[in-house]
Structures are given as C-alpha cells and as structure tokens.
Design goal:
By secondary structure, the protein is mainly alpha-helical. It has 1 helix and no strands.
Length: about 40
C-alpha cells in the first residue's frame, strides 16, 4: 500500500498528525452548536 501511494490517502494520517501537533484544530464541515447564532 505504501508503494502504490494509497496508504491512508483519505486524510486520516493528516488528521492524526494535526491532532498530535496542534492544541486546537478546525475541520471543515464540523461546526459547534453556537455557529450562526446571534
């Protein structure tokens, strides 16, 4: 899988890496319940 380039091609590796390196991450499409409430 690594040689074919399909190893974790869905972005899970990037997500796991970001969770390990960053204190807070924002994922497109995932919003909290207070979003767009004024």
């Amino acid at each position: 899988r690594i040689q074919s380039g399909s190893y974790l091609s869905t972005g899970w590796f990037t997500l796991i890496l970001a969770m390990d390196m960053c204190k807070e991450i924002h994922i497109y499409g995932m919003i909290n319940e207070t979003y767009c409430k004024y």
